[in-house]
Amino acid sequence: MFGCGGLAPSQTALVNETVTATLADISELDREISRFRAAIEELGLKRTALQSFADAQKSLLSPVSRLPAEVLSQIFQQCVIVPWTDIRWDRYYSSNIRPPMAIASVSRPWRDVALSTPRLW
Questions:
Q1: How far apart, in whole angstroms, are the C-alpha atoms of residue 56 and residue 80?
Q2: From what superkingdom does this record's organism come (predicted)?
Q3: Which of 20, 48, 99, 107 is most deeply buried (CB count within 10 A of its CB)?
Q4: 120: Cβ–Cβ under 8 A, 6 or more apart, which residues?
Q5: For 40-78, what is each residue's pLDDT tens digit?
Q6: In this predicted model, what pLDDT tens digit does every residue of 66-117 receive, in sequence order?
């Protein structure tokens, strides 16, 4: 007596066992892939945190970070002076972001100085 596809029942059972084992292997590989993806995501987050830390540490070495707030404020004010009051900003700055906002977006210390400098606004 023959089973599916002309196979003997014992052969059909063997094929079924092989398919079942193969599907189990595929499921295990899927679980392992998921674990690796989670590990990669975690490593990516750690890398991002370390990069941020390194960037923050490097910024401490920057000479501009040692300038007093008063000097930064004066520099910032010079950045927003327009020679003629009737001239539009976009003739001098190609970005849609106005200089005070651009300055305030550089770093937390620059934002603090910019926001505490009324002449910028």
A1: 27
A2: Eukaryota
A3: 99
A4: 76, 77, 80, 99, 100, 103, 114
A5: 999 999 999 999 999 989 988 988 888 999 999 999 998
A6: 899 999 999 999 888 765 454 555 565 566 677 889 899 998 999 999 999 9
Contact 72, 113 (CB under 8 A): yes
Rounded-to-5 percentages of helix, strand, coil across the chain: 75, 0, 25
Nearest alpha-carbon partner for 100 in 81, 76, 84, 83: 76
Task: Kindly report the length of the chain.
Answer: 121
Residue 103 burial (C-beta neighbours within 10 Å; 0-12, 13-18, 19+): buried
Q: Angle between the 69-79 and 108-115 helix axes, to the nearest 10 degrees? A: 70
Residue 1 clears pLDDT 70, i.e. is over it:
no
Sequence-distant (6+) residues with CB within 8 A of 96 are 90
Residue ranges of domains in the chain:
4-60, 63-120
Q: Are 36 and 30 in contact (CB under 8 A)?
A: no
